[in-house]
Specification:
The protein is mainly α. Helix content is 58%, strand content 0%.
Length: 121
């Protein structure tokens, strides 16, 4: 039987937030740009789903902050390694704010627009 674990896939036993942290750490460790895009997307989906599960939770503050920090790191990887636009530059702030407004109106107030391509502000 083949072992599905590899150095780029952290063991769920060692993770504080196993619902999304494994995918996030795999994205951080990925060196291949083609695979990186896929890993980033997988991590974003896992974090989005977990953040939605925590929307009405009163005891998930630490995990919510960890997700916000992880999203910030993913955005940095996207800009530096994959050439995505930097949403924090002055020229992109207007676009970012407009995009955030559209995302909120599409998803509703509880939707965290960071998962639509704009960072948390």
């Amino acid at each position: 039987m083949a072992d599905d674990t590899s150095p780029s896939t952290p063991s769920p036993k060692n993770l504080k937030f196993p619902d999304w942290q494994g995918e996030f750490e795999a994205a951080l460790l990925e060196a291949d740009p083609q695979k990186l895009r896929e890993r980033l997307e997988t991590a974003e989906v896992a974090m989005f789903l977990r953040s939605q599960a925590l929307v009405h939770s009163s005891d998930g503050h630490v995990e919510k902050q960890a997700i916000r920090d992880a999203v910030t790191k993913l955005r940095l990887i996207q800009t530096e390694k994959l050439g995505y636009p930097d949403w924090n530059t002055k020229s992109n702030r207007i676009s970012r704010d407009r995009y955030a407004s559209e995302a909120r109106s599409t998803c509703g107030r509880q939707c965290d627009y960071a998962f639509h391509g704009a960072p948390l502000v």
